[in-house]
Amino acid sequence: MHLSPDQIVFWHYGFLKLNATIVFTWGLMLALALGSQLITRKLSMNLQRARWQNLLEIVITAIKAQIKEVGLPNPEKYMGFLGTLFLFIATASLCTVIPGYEPPTGSLSTTTALALCVLVAVPVFGILDQGIGGYLKSYLEPTIMMLPFNIISEISRTLALAVRLFGNMMSGVMIIGILLSITPFIFPIVMTALGLLTGMVQAYIFSILAAVYVAAATRTRAKET
Amino acid sequence: MDNMTIIAVASIAIAGITTGFGCMGPALAEGRAVATALTSLAQQPDAAATITRTLFVGLAMIESTAIYCFVVSMILIFANPFWNHFVAPAAGK
Known about the structure:
The structure holds 2 protein chains of 2 kinds. By secondary structure, chain A is mainly alpha-helical. Chain A contains 7 helices and 2 strands. Chain A has a two-stranded antiparallel ribbon. Chain B is mainly alpha-helical.
């Protein structure tokens, strides 16, 4: 029984290690990039369009609508970051139906990397939107006394993002592993189905929370205008 | 009992207690949240989209406290730092 796919090492040379997390992350990246490349190679503007183009359009429109509902008026600007987060996490958990696959999001290093991306992206979007001074001033609101608490909340929510995703994905894999050794017939399938649902909800939560944080960092300007 | 046994007993017992007690609070909280959301859904079916979205985000936030407890107990059982600390000298002997 292993806690994370980090412990499955395929190849190592010196201190360079190629573990299952990295390999499956590369596989997912390749699949997502090649898939969208293939689909968007011949786009049609008229009513006759390919199935795959329809699928992508549904996904894109849904993500755009969700980002807009959170309170970001022009979602195209944030689409690249938030949409990628959602697609990566969702694909990572959907692929658990493939035998032999371990979700890379079940490793604390992947989820920490994703949460650190959010930690960096939120100030970047905030500064792009309201300038360095305006963004830094948002730390002093409502009073200057709140400065340490604002900084603590920035760090603790990053930690929470990382541990939440890791805990959910890891618990799914772990429960299936335990059930396989106790009742190997029906229950693992049920739990796999439940794990698919949890994975989608977690992907949604992760990207929605990132969107909420971005919206909070860019909100002051929208309120003034 | 030597050190290893004490660590093993303490880790396993505390891991169970952690998840057991750590799930109680979030379970009560999630029940309340869902009950309130259902009431407001019955009163305002038009606001279903907003209520459902907020409910999901809120549930995930509540659930993450239970997940923290679960992670701690998994660390206690499968990746206990004190265990490795005492296993290494024992193996070296």
